[in-house]
Amino acid sequence: MTGRMMGRKKWAGFGAGLLALLLLPLLLSESHQSTVITCLLYIYLGSAWNIIGGLGKQISFGHAAFFGVGAYTSTILMLEIGVSPWIGMIAGGGVAAVAAILLGVLCFRFRLGGVYFSIATLVFAEIFRILAINAEFLRKYSDVAGGLGITIPFRSDPWNYQFAGNLPYYYIILALSAGAILSGAAVRGSRLGYSLRALGDSDESAVALGVHPGKVKIAALALSAFLVALAGTFQFQFIRYLDPNQSFSLHLSIIMVFVCLIGGFGETFGVVVGAIFIVVVRETITSLTSLMGGMNAGAVSEAIYGACLMAVAYFFPNGIVSYARARIGRAKRMRITAAGTC
């Protein structure tokens, strides 16, 4: 009964937070709306990465590959044959899922999990980045060369996923983020989620229970890749510039990892805490260091930002939400023990 009540409180809090977020942009300037959009994007990406990285404990350092594949697929379809990005983003998700399945077959069918999987995903993203920079067929879409990126023409047409102002983009990414959190919760409580957690604890024990490691991990990787690819379309329709060094960047992949690491691997709502922490800390440090002026302000800002992330990872190795959950559970057990001795 207690667990059910806690679950109801958690989802009531989710509903209240969602309602507040629906009203929040009406009180914010355009620049602050952009900051919240970034935070929501990180929540979405963290939720998608958490499926394979948090539940399955298969740490991917190359999820930006799927982000970039989604962005490039929808953008090229729009520029080449006039396909709406709303449709192109689904196509991009499909292409990313196929790429993930191929990667999963190469890794999981040959039992290349753990650190080998992490290295493979890192190389996978780098291959896509190099291809996007050097591909000849992309040059016709760029002002100078394919490696310098693609400028998406602004048409101010909702059918083309383009709007005047940040408000529509805010509500789109809010809907995507809420959907990703709900999807993550659904996966966690599904057979796939139980299988992933069993494999994350021990492959041998999971196999003894009838779990097929390869199929489960490939399915989780494909689902995660599909969701991440949708964010690729959103981001580059929002900024209207497609750069291979950004879309396939290691920094983006690391952001996904840290969002889940700070909140707690496998925690449904941990991504919210992780994303808010990263954005707030980064914005605060950037504002403070900008007051310093000089050429080294940016470098100092990045150094302090990195140190803060590492400090949280050190003091909360299982994540802030997991730490809080453990402390609350310990406090309850102590109260029960104290009541029993009275």
Features:
342 residues, mainly alpha, 14 helices, 1% strand, globular
Can you walk through the features of this model?
- This protein has 342 residues and is mostly helical.
- The chain has one domain (31-271).
- It is 75% helix and 1% strand.
- The chain has helices spanning 2-23, 30-55, 64-81, 85-108, 115-134, 167-188, 191-201, 203-208, 213-239, 244-247, 250-263, 270-290, 297-315, 320-341, and strands at residues 150-151, 241-242.
- The protein has a two-stranded antiparallel ribbon with strand order 1-2.
- α2 packs antiparallel against α9 (213-239).
- It starts with a helix and ends with a helix.
Describe, in short, the structure shown:
With 342 residues, this protein is mostly helical. The chain has helices at residues 2-23, 30-55, 64-81, 85-108, 115-134, 167-188, 191-201, 203-208, 213-239, 244-247, 250-263, 270-290, 297-315, 320-341, and strands at residues 150-151, 241-242.
Secondary structure layout:
Layout lengths: L1 H22 L6 H26 L8 H18 L3 H24 L6 H20 L15 E2 L15 H22 L2 H11 L1 H6 L4 H27 L1 E2 L1 H4 L2 H14 L6 H21 L6 H19 L4 H22 L1
Antiparallel strand pairs: 1-2
